[in-house]
Design brief:
3 domains, 18 helices, 12 strands, Rossmann fold, 475 residues, binds 5-phosphoarabinonic acid, alpha/beta, five-stranded parallel β-sheet
């Protein structure tokens, strides 16, 4: 497994005043070592794993969890041609990231069978989306995974009810139950209670693993295993990366180095937007997973001392080469408020020979006989060069290949990078009070008991809107 991080185009020698100086990098190095030390201390490594504050670094080493997944996947193999995940945010994006990276973007997976099941992810409550999805699946051949750590997220509960009702209508309650498994907190929450009531097959999200850091536990690995992916290889890659992420030497620790450069870009150069720019359609799911990880972890109102900081860096996903013809004009000439993170792949499993067709037309014929992989690589390097020339700081992560080990390692690299960046910003990268607040308003609006305070607060908000509307009438 080999993943590299190249920061040269972030330096002042490449992008002038938008780049970093040697002095700033030395300051960054001191902040990075402090971040590594404080994150390690915060983990409380002296305690048993289950009691440590953060559990994601341990997930690649959780043998018991993977054994349970593998045993279950083996026991149901051949019975289903569709795996339907019902979950949202951190309970859905990891499954998509893995599947997209290792089997390809969904529209391409047209042919599905019990040997190669389709993954359908219901991560929204758009009624047309849900009914279209249900119409596309055969209840007798669908395995449903209800995934929610809290066990009460309104969207997930509603979509789960829709799917469970659909299964029961078609097959009856007993057969429906046999086609449902849940992934949730070991002890807390309504979904855990439902598991006990209905005797659903179930798997655990460790209490010390938050949604967006949960891809390497049953939240991501159960759907992956059911779709036939090799979760041992994914975890082996992540384990190897974990070892690197604890190294104090920045040249050996890509997560710490990348965190340091992104922190410097944000705090020293005001680059408040990071464009994650994969040059591989298979990394599109990882880009969306990363968007949540970086946004929800670092976008915070207060720091750990309680001081209001309103910090964070807005992650944007762009796909190379497609978005060169959509976004790059803005990126090269618009506001210089972004840092670009290219994600390149050194070797594709098949380079895609371009047929040596001779048309007699020079603007076309030079491409014949070359490969699509060479063109993709040339486009990525050209875009990096063009942005650098326009003084737009950019860096490149390069994966040797898109296989299980590299994807597991890449995801783990980003989780550590995010944790380190959180330490450098002095914020808690593991909570999400802004999301929780929105969830409470939804509960209040949907009439859930115990949310009267939020219902009142919503009525106050409506009254303020009315007052604001009246205040501009006749102006
Ligand atoms: O990262 C997070 O914690 C969130 O994005 C959650 O994953 C998301 O809100 C879904 O929560 P739950 O798994 O409890 O349904």
């Amino acid at each position: 497994m080999n993943i590299t991080f190249d920061e040269i185009n972030l330096l002042t020698g490449m992008v002038g005043e938008h780049g970093l100086t040697a002095t700033e990098i030395r300051e960054g190095e001191a902040a990075a070592s402090a971040a590594l030390a404080s994150f390690r201390t915060r983990l409380q490594p002296e305690k048993p794993v289950a009691e440590q504050t953060y559990g994601f670094p341990h997930l690649p080493f959780d043998r018991a969890s993977r054994d349970a997944i593998t045993a279950y996947a083996g026991s149901v193999r051949g019975r289903f041609d569709t795996v339907c995940v019902v979950g949202i945010g951190g309970s859905a994006l990891g499954a998509w990231a893995l599947d997209c990276a290792l089997r390809g973007p969904h529209p391409v997976q047209a042919a599905f069978s019990p040997a190669n099941p389709r993954l359908v992810i219901l991560d929204n409550v758009d009624p047309m989306f849900i009914s279209d999805a249900l119409r596309s699946m055969d209840p007798a051949r669908t395995l449903v995974l209800a995934i929610a750590k809290s066990g009460a997220t309104a969207e997930t509960v509603a979509a789960f009810f829709a799917v469970r009702g659909w299964l029961e209508d078609a097959l009856g309650p007993a057969a429906a139950k046999d086609r449902i498994a849940a992934v949730t907190s070991p002890e807390k929450g309504a979904l855990r209670e439902l598991v006990a009531k209905e005797s659903y097959q179930s798997f655990e999200v460790p209490e010390n693993v938050g949604g967006r850091f949960s891809v390497l536990c049953p939240v991501g690995l159960l759907p992956a295993a059911l779709c036939g992916l090799d979760i041992e290889r994914i975890s082996a890659g992540a384990a190897e990366m974990t070892a690197r992420c604890w190294k104090p030497d920045l040249s050996e620790n890509p997560a710490l180095r990348a965190a340091m450069f992104h922190w410097l870009m944000l705090t020293r150069r005001g680059k408040s937007i990071q464009v994650a720019f994969p040059y591989a359609n298979r990394l599109w799911g990882v880009a969306f997973w990363f968007r949540q990880l970086w946004a929800e972890s670092l976008g915070k109102r207060v720091n750990r001392a309680g001081v209001v900081v309103h910090t964070g860096q807005t992650p944007v996903a762009a796909l190379g080469t497609t978005d060169q013809h959509s976004q790059v004009q803005l990126y090269a000439e618009g506001p210089n408020d972004k840092v670009f993170s290219f994600w390149a792949v050194r070797e594709f499993s098949s380079p895609g020979l371009i047929p040596a067709i001779k048309t007699g037309l020079e603007p076309m014929d030079y491409l014949g006989g070359q490969t699509l992989a060479k063109l993709l690589d040339a486009e990525q390097r050209s875009t990096a060069a063009a942005l650098t020339t326009a003084h737009r700081p950019n860096c490149t992560y390069t994966l040797d290949r898109l296989d299980e080990e590299h994807i597991g390692a890449f995801l783990q690299l980003f989780e550590f990078q995010t944790a380190f960046a959180g330490e450098m910003l002095g914020i808690d990268a593991f909570d999400q009070p802004g999301v929780e607040e929105g969830k409470k308003f939804t509960f209040a609006l949907m009439g859930r008991e115990g949310f009267g305070k939020h219902a009142q607060s919503y009525r106050d908000y409506e009254a303020r809107r009315e007052a604001a509307r009246s205040s501009i009438m006749g102006t």
